[in-house]
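hey can u check if this looks right to u? its 216 residues, i copy pasted from the old doc so theres a chance i mangled smth
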Amino acid sequence: MSEPEWIVQRDGNRYPAADVATLQHWATSGNIRPDDQVWSPARGDWSTATEVPEIAELIVRPTAIIAGDRAAVGAVSSTQLARASNGARAVAYLIDVIPAVMIALIALIPLIGHIIAGVLLGFYWLYRDAMRFSLGKIALGLQVVQADGSPATRQSLIRRNMPLGIAGFVTAIPLLGLFLGPITGFVAVASAGLLLLSEGQTLGDKWAGTAVVKRG
């Protein structure tokens, strides 16, 4: 069997393309991301997809993922993203706030209340999407996926909630947390809201490379 002319590499996986026409078809179909690595025997090294002249102008925003039977050349599995509306995400977030408010009441306990509440809030926010959806997302029929439509990883699910999680842990700082916690929380919520309205993504989504979509 002859060596493939082109190879696309993504996330440690390699996908062989029999010829440049196949590679260009993947690019125009949205199956090659701008940051994918592409190798050709003619060049003898790897290049970012946007640096490969044969496909640089053909790359579009992906609506499918190169996946499936890796033994078959060019196997593709399509995943269409039905992005959640900003309104649905806002309502889901408000539902997620309800348990957080109940936890925050622990802060009323003198001396150590805000420490306990801060720790619990930090872990609550970090793991609220542990199953790829939170209470609010269940109610609104939403879930978290990677930006390309693939299942969200555990690491991404935690990372996307880090801004709010950090705000909770700041609240747990003895004495100072009583003042810094609310400020940090306000900044995290405000920045998330502004980015969602302006770019359709929160800061957490940008960090983690995630998106919120409607469950099929």
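The longest helix spans residues 177-199.
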